[in-house]
Amino acid sequence: MQNLLNPSGVNGQAVAEVLERLQKDVSVTNIAGLALYRQDLSPILMIEPPMETPLRNRFKRIPGNGGAHEWNRLVATNGPSGVPFIGGTLPTSGFFAKGGLPTNSNPSYEHVSAPYKLVGDIAEVTDFDQAAGRSYMDLLAHQIKMKTRNVALMEEWCIINGYTSTPGQPNNNPLYFSGLLEQDNFNVNNVAGAAFTIGSVRKAQLLQYNVGAQPRMVVMSTLMKAKFNDLILSNFFAVRQTTGLEAFTRLQTGLNVTQFDFGYGPVDVIQHRYLTAGAGNASGGTQEVILSLDDMSENENGNAIEMVDLLPVGMTPLARTTTSTRQLVQEYTLLKVTAPIYQASVTGIATPTFSS
Length: 356
Prior knowledge:
By secondary structure, this protein is α+β, with helices and mostly antiparallel strands. Helix content is 28%, strand content 26%.
C-alpha cells in the first residue's frame, strides 16, 4: 500500500505484481437500487453461423401485445376439390349483372386464443472463472452467445414438439406453446406402419392442394432424410443403368436432396434433429412423422404460419448470488398457425433401417 501511495518507490516488478492482481480481481456490480435494463439479443442470432433452427429461421415473426394473442384460423375454404376459392365466393356466384350484386359466401374460420410462453436460460459468470485470469466481459460475451443460441434451440424444439392440451398425450405441458405436431392435424395420411415412399408424401400434398394451399417444405427426421436420399440415389442409378444418359462419375460423393418436386411444385426438404421416431405418438411407439407445410400463403390473418413475439430474445440482469453474476436470456413467444387446413402430415411411417 505504501508503494501505491508513493509511486516513486515502485519498481517494475512491483508494478507487474499489482497489475496481475488487478487483472485477476473479481468484477462485482451491485445492482441494488438500480433499474434493471433489457438488452436486445436478436442481432446475435442473425450474425451467428447457421444453427440447426431451420423453422425458427424461416417463419415470419410479428410483434405481439397484451397477455395473449387472438386470431381466426382458416379451417375450410369453398369450392370443389382441387379448385377452392380462398375468399369463399365461387365463380357461379361472383359474376353479376349491371346494377346487381354478387352472391357472397365466406370461408370457415374459428376463433382461437393462446397465451405467450416464456422460454429462457441463465448466463452466469462465476468468481472462480474470473480469478483464473479471464476478464468478466469476455466471459459474459461467451455466455450470452451460447445461452442465446440455446434459447433459439429450445424454441425450435417446441415449434415441433410443443403439446399443451392434447387428450392422452403424455408430453402435455402448459408451459409450452402449441407446436406443429399438435396443430398440424387436418390433412393426415396415415400409412399404418408401412415403409416410406415418395407417394405417401404426394398423397398428403394432394390434400393440401385440394384446399388451396401450396406446399412449400417437407420436414423429416435425420433417419428419414437419409432414407429419402438413398431412395433418390437408387432411382437415379436405375435411370442411369437403363438409359445411359448420365455418367455416375458426375455425381458428387454422397447425395443430399435439399429440394424436390413430389408433384405439386418444388419444396424444400428439411432434415430436423428434433423430429424423432415416436414424435407425436401418445402410445410411445417408434413410427415416424413427416410434415408437409405451407408457411407462406396468406389469408386475412397473415401468413399461414408465423411466430408472434411479445418480447424478442433479450437479456436482463439478475441479482448476484454468493459466487456468481447472472443474466437472464429470455423471450416471450408463441407459434401461430393461421391456416391449419393448409398443412399436412404423413404419420405411422416405419422407422427406416439400413443394411450394414
